[in-house]
């Protein structure tokens, strides 16, 4: 029976060993392995971090390239030195690298730690790079794990790669909305993240034990199995010792608290707005984009990584198009990328080889290859979070799995579609309802809308300009300040005040301050005819910036300079005709007559200028008209807080103030302003600001389309171009150049509230259909030859049939529109309509197409000829950039002439002209088509024909074609 004794003795020994080892674990939190951390010294220290320099004796090797390792927020910096023999710092040192580690400490134990923001981490990391560079004299290889890698990307963008040799990341997601589990819609995930950021982490931080529990809950079956295996082998101390430090790190020592503000900022910027991909993230008040990373990038990807899923990690390829991006794909989970046997044998040796290769002392590491631009499908054998949870559930219950998955897939599909429809309705319906509630006496204005926005979200970004950010609260404070300055200068409610300023935050503030005061802003275009514009509107005072002070003073009006400190360089002499608003004494109390935002819907708010038929026209816009455009734009373009509108259109143009600024305010979007149309600046700012919507007028986008900018070649965040007057040829080019972005074309009448929008964008050139909330429109029959309406048998204006050209009429709402432009008894007895003086046709689908202005219809020998259809047809010729149609007077009748500009290396032929114009009736085609070097344009890029018309008939030659009436072809007019 010796075997029985041996069995009993073995069991007893096993029990005793289990008890002894268990006591040691309970007492010390784990086995005492005797292992010591790698040696380091703290080189720099501040409230945010301690900078560890490992193996400080290696300073005798000045040629060793420095590598700075960055941990995630929730994990201890010791993650890079879990085991001295297999830890990152030890392996890198053995390979001839100089390892440094950033220790952010535990926020709950640091002074002000729980108030840290995401920006604090990025700015701190930038300071670390400067410190290491100063210490070593070499460029730094910046390497980060998980969120630490996100910090590395953001810091590289913040510094625009200055001082960096390369960026290395491990399981660091870039496209936060890619690869969401269970097919959750990105919009739903974004709104959930916003809810948590705004209502949870604004008052709550995450403790270390919560971070540990969250990590373990990602795979609860694996966690339970690991603990069971540990208990089952507790008697065998020697078998557990090799993995003890790793186990203790994950179970006890490795987790630190997260600060609530940092989590909230991360959720808002990189989940809600996905700004790692789109750009426009704000770090310490500076706008950044990963598109400005130019140093080499190496991204480690775990095939079975639940947190940094491959699709999300690979977003860096699209987000940083100017960088050489490589990847290393490993069969590892999130933690296994940096700790454990795979990390020791593959990750860190590859990092060492990469650094030496970048330093010119080796070859490209095996397993490292250029990241593909697009990678369809999933990696073979890859296991995502959804499948991991599904597998865990399957371990508990396998019955009915097929049915469950089928139902889940169907539910997700329905939920996805339903959420998109619901989200769209939630955005659009309140705006339309608000428009429907407007009455002539309703208090509403630009100033009121800005105050409403500042009250609801004071800390959110409002204006982006010159790479800086102004919050809603900051803009609101400045508006109120300028109101006091204007009152001190003697400006009163109802006064017509000129505004002559470049597009800038100061211009927006000046216009908003006039609105808040109840004054009328007269938006003066910076052209040669400024004096006549001032006289036309009887403007006595002009608010201007220092750059336009001389031009404003030349008009004879009193000049109010708004420079916010910039006027000191002007050396102005004291004069009652030139007043520096920023230097006025504001100590006096506001007068009792002042009431903020007194404007009502029917009140005049803005005055604009335009040129029609070579003459200047005044456009008056009421608060109701402005609000209609603002909320109509927001609804048609589905604008929300995720959008950033890039205002290419100057603010003195109606589209800039009503569509761009107004749409952004109504939709809650950020407003990005720019100093002008420049292709290089445009390419940089689109990424840096995270621009999703771009405004335009007429041919404003032509230079941007023609410019070759590789920075926008592969990826851009733009989804929409909104504006008015885009030529059809340019429309085609914009669609091709900026795909998948589309064009949203608007039309708004000068008189009345007629607003049309081509929301679908499928009919290029069409103005679309009436916006909900705008005035009812109808086409009245019109005889273009006589200039009179066509009447029916009862003497009323005849309604137009489909595709018949007529005058667009808008039905006014009681009390809102000026009586002098109203017509009564138009289609029925007692009705009232307002004529727009614009000719349209309506197709069978109900879409309206602009044909001409009543005053610019050409009366030719063949009858009246409409200009816009000719321009639209010529826009179909790919080599033509712009076209303008005008009459040239002869002895008998006007001759219809079309002037075109041709793109570089473009060749225009008579056959191309014949094919393009064949769709027009013979009497609606131009008699002559000729090429010109340039077509003059207004400051808002509207093509002008005045100078061409004055030059007379074009000379015959190789660039001139005439319409042969015998067969309808266009033939070259030779001398």
Note down, in words, how this protein is organized.
InterPro entries: AB_hydrolase_fold, AMP-dep_synth/lig_dom, ANL_N_sf. This protein has about 1000 residues and is of the alpha/beta class. Among the domains are: about 40-185 and about 275-370, Alpha/Beta hydrolase fold, catalytic domain (Rossmann fold); about 425-630, Rossmann fold, CATH 3.40.50.12780; about 855-975, GMP Synthetase, Chain A, domain 3 (2-Layer Sandwich). It contains 29 helices and 40 strands. Strands 1-2-4-3-5-6-9-10-11 form a nine-stranded mixed beta sheet, with helices on both faces. Strands 13-12-22-21-23-24-25-26-27 form a nine-stranded mixed beta sheet, sandwiched between helices. Helix 3 (about 120-135) packs across helix 4, helix 5 (about 185-200) packs antiparallel against helix 10 (about 260-270) and helix 17 crosses helix 18. The model is unreliable at about 375-425 (pLDDT under 50).
């Amino acid at each position: 029976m010796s075997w029985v004794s041996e069995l009993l003795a073995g069991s007893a020994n096993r029990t005793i060993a289990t008890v002894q080892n268990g006591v040691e674990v309970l007492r010390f939190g784990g086995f005492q392995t005797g292992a010591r951390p790698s040696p380091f010294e703290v080189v720099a220290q501040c409230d945010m971090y301690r900078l560890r320099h490992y193996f400080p004796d290696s300073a005798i090797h000045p040629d060793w390239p420095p590598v700075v390792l960055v941990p995630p927020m929730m994990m201890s910096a010791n993650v890079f030195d879990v085991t001295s023999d297999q830890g990152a710092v030890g392996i890198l040192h053995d390979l001839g690298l100089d390892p440094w580690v950033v220790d952010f400490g535990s926020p709950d134990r640091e002074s002000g730690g729980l108030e840290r923001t995401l920006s604090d981490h990025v700015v701190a990391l930038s300071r670390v790079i400067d410190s290491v560079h100063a210490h070593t004299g070499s460029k730094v290889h910046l390497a980060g794990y998980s969120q630490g890698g996100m910090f590395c990307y953001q810091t590289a963008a913040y510094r625009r790669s200055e001082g960096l040799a390369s960026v290395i990341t491990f399981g660091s997601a870039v496209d936060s909305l890619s690869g969401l589990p269970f097919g959750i819609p990105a919009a739903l995930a974004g709104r959930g993240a916003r809810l948590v950021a705004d209502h949870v982490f604004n008052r709550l931080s995450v403790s270390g034990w919560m971070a540990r529990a969250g990590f373990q809950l990602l795979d609860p079956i694996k966690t339970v199995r690991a603990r069971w295996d540990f208990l089952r082998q507790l008697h065998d101390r020697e078998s557990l010792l090799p993995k003890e430090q790793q186990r203790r790190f994950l179970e006890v020592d490795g987790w630190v608290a997260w600060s609530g503000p940092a989590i909230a900022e991360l959720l808002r910027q990189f989940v809600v707005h996905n700004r790692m991909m789109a750009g426009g993230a704000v770090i310490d008040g500076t706008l950044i984009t990963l598109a400005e990373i130019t140093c080499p990038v190496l991204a480690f990807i775990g095939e079975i990584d639940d947190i940094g899923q491959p699709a999300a990690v690979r977003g860096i390829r699209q987000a940083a198009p100017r960088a050489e991006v490589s990847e290393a794909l490993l069969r590892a989970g999130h933690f296994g990328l940096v700790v454990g046997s795979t990390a020791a044998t593959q990750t860190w040796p590859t990092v060492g080889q990469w650094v030496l290769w970048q330093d010119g002392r080796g070859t490209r590491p095996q397993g490292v290859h250029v990241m593909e631009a697009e990678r369809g499908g999933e990696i073979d054998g890859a296991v995502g979070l959804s499948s991991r949870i599904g597998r865990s559930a399957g371990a508990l219950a396998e019955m009915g799995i097929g049915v469950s998955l089928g139902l889940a897939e169907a539910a997700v599909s329905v939920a996805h579609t339903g959420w998109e429809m619901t989200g769209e309705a939630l955005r659009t319906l309140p705006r339309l309802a608000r428009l429907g509630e407007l009455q002539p006496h309703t208090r509403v204005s630009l100033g009121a809308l800005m105050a409403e926005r500042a009250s609801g979200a004071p800390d959110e970004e409002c204006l982006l300009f010159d790479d800086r950010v102004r919050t809603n609260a900051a803009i609101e404070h400045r508006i109120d300040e300028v109101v006091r300055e204007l009152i001190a200068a003697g400006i009163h409610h109802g006064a017509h005040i000129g505004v002559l300023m470049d597009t800038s935050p100061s211009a927006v503030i000046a216009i908003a301050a006039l609105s808040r005061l109840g004054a009328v802003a007269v938006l003066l275009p910076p052209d040669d005819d400024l004096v006549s514009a001032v006289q036309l509107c009887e403007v006595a005072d002009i608010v201007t910036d220092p750059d336009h002070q001389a031009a404003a003073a030349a008009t004879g009006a009193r000049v109010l300079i708004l420079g916010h400190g910039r006027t000191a360089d002007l050396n102005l002499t004291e004069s009652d005709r030139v007043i520096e608003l920023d230097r006025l004494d504001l100590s006096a109390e506001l007068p009792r007559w002042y009431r903020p935002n007194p404007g009502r819907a029917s009140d005049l708010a803005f005055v604009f200028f335009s040129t029609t038929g070579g003459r200047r026209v005044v456009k008056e816009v009421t608060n109701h008209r402005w609000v209609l455009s603002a909320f109509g734009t927001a609804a048609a373009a589905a604008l929300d807080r995720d959008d950033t509108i890039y205002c290419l259109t100057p603010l003195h143009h109606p589209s800039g103030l009503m569509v761009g600024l107004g749409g952004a305010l109504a939709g809650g979007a950020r407003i990005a302003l720019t100093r002008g149309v420049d292709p290089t600046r445009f390419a940089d700012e689109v990424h840096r600001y995270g621009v999703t919507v771009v405004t335009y007028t007429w041919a404003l986008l032509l230079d941007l389309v023609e410019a070759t900018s590789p920075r926008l070649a592969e990826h851009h965040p733009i989804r929409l171009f909104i504006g008015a007057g885009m030529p059809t040829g340019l429309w085609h080019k914009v669609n091709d150049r900026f795909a998948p972005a589309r064009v949203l074309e608007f039309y708004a009448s000068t008189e009345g509230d007629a607003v049309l929008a081509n929301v679908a964008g499928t009919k290029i050139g069409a103005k679309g259909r009436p916006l909900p909330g705008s005035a009812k429109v109808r086409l009245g029959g019109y005889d273009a030859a006589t200039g009179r309406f066509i009447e029916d048998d009862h003497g009323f204006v005849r309604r137009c049939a489909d595709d018949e050209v007529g005058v667009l009429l808008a039905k006014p709402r009681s009390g809102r529109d000026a009586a002098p432009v109203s017509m009564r008894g138009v289609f029925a007895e007692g009705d009232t309509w307002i004529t727009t003086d614009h000719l349209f046709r309506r197709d069978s689908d109900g879409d309206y197409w602009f044909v001409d202005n009543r005053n610019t219809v050409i009366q030719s020998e063949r009858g009246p000829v409409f200009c816009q259809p000719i321009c639209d047809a010529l826009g179909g010729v790919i080599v033509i950039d712009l076209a303008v149609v005008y009459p040239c007077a002869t002895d008998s009748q006007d001759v219809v002439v079309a002037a075109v500009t041709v793109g570089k290396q473009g060749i225009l032929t008579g056959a191309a002209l014949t094919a393009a114009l064949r769709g027009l009736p013979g009497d609606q085609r131009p008699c002559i088509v000729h090429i010109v070097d340039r077509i003059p344009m207004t400051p808002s890029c509207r093509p002008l024909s005045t100078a061409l018309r004055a030059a007379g008939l074009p000379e015959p030659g190789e660039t001139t074609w005439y319409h042969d009436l015998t067969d309808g072809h266009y033939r070259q007019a030779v001398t």
